[in-house]
Amino acid sequence: MTADDVCADGQASPAERVRTVLAAAESFTAITDAHTCDLVGGGLHRVGEDGRLLLRLPAGCRLAGEVAVAPRGTLPAVLKFTDVAPVAVRDRVRSRVTVAGWLARAAPEDEDDGTATFRMVTAHVALGTPAGPVTVGLDELALARPDVLALHEAAMLTHLVDDHADVVALLTRLVDPRLLQGVVRVWPLAMDRRGITLRLEHAHSHEDVLLRFPAPVGEAGQAGDRVRALLAAARACRRGSRLPSRP
What we know:
Blueprint: H1 14-24, E1 27-31, E2 36-40, E3 45-47, E4 53-58, H2 62-69, E5 74-84, E6 93-105, E7 115-129, E8 132-135, H3 138-143, H4 153-163, H5 165-171, E9 185-191, E10 195-201, E11 206-212, H6 223-236
Antiparallel strand pairs: 1-2, 1-5, 3-4, 4-7, 5-6, 6-7, 7-8, 9-10, 10-11
């Protein structure tokens, strides 16, 4: 993580958020002038240390064929990645990343396993959030790193919901009681190095609240200790949860 990864208010920068979405995504949509295809499965893309996006696709797929016949071997393309909450909250899409540019073969020959590697010559990157779209500079993207919990968040949140629902109710003791008025259900929406974000669902709306860890997570192995510290703080609160039990 670099100093540029954190905004003045302590939140992750747009560049880090983009890198985090790209690191965790297991699917994306590729759009060319000729067609749109959804690509699903781990290992189909990766981001290099310099922020360059690489795709590894079946050598005989339609997208690979389009690149092969494109003028100068570069195909205009838009790649779309969607960050979806791993638990069944209302409005599960947390953000979207759009990468526009040109696809080109990274090597002249197919790989031995029948795949081909393509590099994305990026021209524009945008992060779409509920607050609106943000353009991310390519230099910023190259310097940023994904959140340390990017590859672990989904498993941790689903484990929390499936096996420790009582813990979520306990954590609401750390929420300002005024925010709990009218809340009918609570879910853990996200977890990153800063803390756990709870989604407080009302009958027709919702609000997200960040419960900050006592110190940011520096590596994935520290996450358990940070969560236990939050729980200890919640147990020390005198007031109990005002939320009903989740069905």
